[in-house]
Structures are given as C-alpha cells and as structure tokens.
From TrEMBL:
GO terms for biological process: phosphorelay signal transduction system. PANTHER family: RESPONSE REGULATOR RECEIVER, TWO-COMPONENT RESPONSE REGULATOR. Residues 132-229 form the HTH LytTR-type domain. InterPro entries: CheY-like_superfamily, LytTR_DNA-bd_dom, Sig_transdc_resp-reg_receiver, ST_Response_Regulator. The keyword Phosphoprotein applies. The lineage of its organism: Bacteria, Pseudomonadati, Bacteroidota, Cytophagia, Cytophagales. This is LytTR family two component transcriptional regulator. Residues 8-123 form the Response regulatory domain.
Length: 229
C-alpha cells in the first residue's frame, strides 16, 4: 500500500460537481478524502471533527465568508496545511490569497496530474515538520512539532510549550520522544527535551529557549554538541 492512503484531505468547494470531481480524482490517486464541505461553516465543522492533513479550498464559496476567510480561521486555530483551488488568477485575488500563506495555488481547470504534483510538493514541503496529537480535556488536538519549543517532564506528566501555550499531557518524556519521528527534538536532561530550531543560545550548562533556561546534564551534553556542530 502506498503512503498516500493515510493522507487525509478535506475538499471545500461550493460547486457540487467540482467538489465531487476533485474527490474522485483524489481517490483515484490513492489519497483519503475525509469529506466535501460546501460552505465556510461546513468547512469549519469538518476541520474540527475530521482533523485532516490538508485542506483543498476554493476561494469563492458563494457565501458572506469566502475561502480566504476560511484560511485566516485555519491560521488562527488548527494551522492545518491548505492550498487554494480557484478559477481566479487576477493580481488582486492572488495577492490577497498569498497573505494567508497557502502551501500552493492551483488554477482551475486542472488535470489529475496537476493535482497529484501539487499535493506531493506540499507533502514533501511539510516532511520537515510533524503533526503531534495530544489530548486536551475530552478532545484531541493537533499541533505542529515546529511550533514546540521544549518539553518538560514532571513525574507522570509532561508540559509541552507551543507558541506561548502550555499543554499538559499524561506521559513520560521517554515515551513521548519515542513516539515522535521529528528530528529536531533533542534530550538535554532527564527532565528536558528541546527543539533545536527554537534555541536562542547555549552554554556548557544551559540552553536558552525563549524565556526558559534549561539545564544540560553530562549524559546528554555530547549528543547536543554534535547536533549543533
């Protein structure tokens, strides 16, 4: 089985025929389509419920809120990767869309090959990142590993610091790190792991990550120095 089968995509388009065609092409290419949303509100609910890996969204949703509004919502909340699929190619529309930092912009009409190439470029672009699923109350949320600055252990719990937020998860630091395939997490102490991309400075005894001064233990110092060299 190819690895595309586990890649979940939500299609957002107010034109039923276009949404169905896009979904059909995605299925033919081996991706997992988790739904088709025809409006801003439907898309917001679907993103929250399905937690897709990618959202393919049209700019014109035939509603008071369009695809660019949805992109703003995604950037403020789930930060799910998204790409635009639109018939608009004028400078004004593309400039507005570009400000939302999409992964790609695909112009209609498109071919199956166009769709495949665009999605695979997006997937490879995001392989340096990883989505981390953590339990928050009664729900599960996804966060980007690139946004995590450090993980601190506190007995049977860990604290995950992400863009000014703090998530408390019932897990050991060992178990958490073993579950991740993200190369930039490095253990520096029995109670601390850091994201190399978030390091501001370091000395022989400490690593500074934002407002946090994290101790370096002897047993982890050599590996840390090798990663920085």
């Amino acid at each position: 089985m190819n690895d595309r089968a586990g890649y979940q995509i939500l299609v957002v388009d107010d034109e039923e025929a276009i949404g169905a065609m896009c979904s059909s092409l995605l299925n033919e290419l081996g991706y997992a389509v988790v739904g088709i949303a025809a409006s801003y509100d439907q898309a917001v609910r679907a993103i929250d419920e399905k937690q897709p890996d990618l959202v393919i969204l049209d700019i014109d949703l035939g509603d008071s809120k369009n695809g660019i509004d949805l992109a703003d919502h995604i950037n403020e909340t789930t930060k799910t990767p998204f790409l635009y699929l639109s018939s608009y190619a004028d400078i004004s529309t593309v400039s507005k869309a570009a400000k939302t930092i999409p992964q790609a912009y695909l112009i209609k009409p498109f071919t199956k090959e166009d769709l495949f190439t665009t999605i695979e470029i997006v997937r490879n672009k995001n392989k340096t990142d990883q989505t981390i699923q953590i339990s928050s109350g009664t729900s599960t949320i996804k966060i980007s590993a690139n946004d995590v600055s450090l993980i601190k252990s506190d007995n049977n719990y860990i604290e995950i610091f992400e863009n000014g937020k703090r998530h408390i998860v019932r897990s050991s630091l060992d178990a958490f790190l073993k579950e991740q395939e993200y190369d930039n997490f490095v253990r520096i102490h029995r109670s601390y792991a850091i994201n190399l991309l978030k390091v501001d400075s370091f000395s022989r005894q400490h690593v500074i990550v934002g407002n946090h001064k994290c101790p370096i233990s002897r047993s982890y110092k050599q590996e840390l120095m090798q990663r920085f060299s």
